[in-house]
Amino acid sequence: xxxxxxxxxxxxxxxxxxxxxxxxxxxxxxxxxxxxxxxxxxxxxxxxxxxxxxxxxxxxxxxxxxxxxxxxxxxxxxxxxxxxxxxxxxxxxxxxxxxxx
Length: 101
Prior knowledge:
Helix content is 50%, strand content 8%. The protein is mostly helical and 101 residues long. Helix 2 (53-79) packs antiparallel against helix 3 (83-98). The longest helix is centred in the middle third of the chain and has 27 residues, at 53-79. The radius of gyration is 26 Å and the shape is rod-shaped.
């Protein structure tokens, strides 16, 4: 049961608004299709899912670009040939910009 913060009336857990005053109800947990996420969490306690896995993919791709540039800097500095870095650095930056990283 959820208690309305405006009028104090007890309402059902699945009710989005108070039946007496119409105020939006807020609970201590999020709702998922009318049922609480806490009951869903008990059933799926071993399943880990990332809500925004796209963000993690972008971070991984950015790290790959950064490590590629670092390896190129180390390699070309060791070879004492610096001109390829003037081409690679803006090329990787433009690639990351087009990929919206």
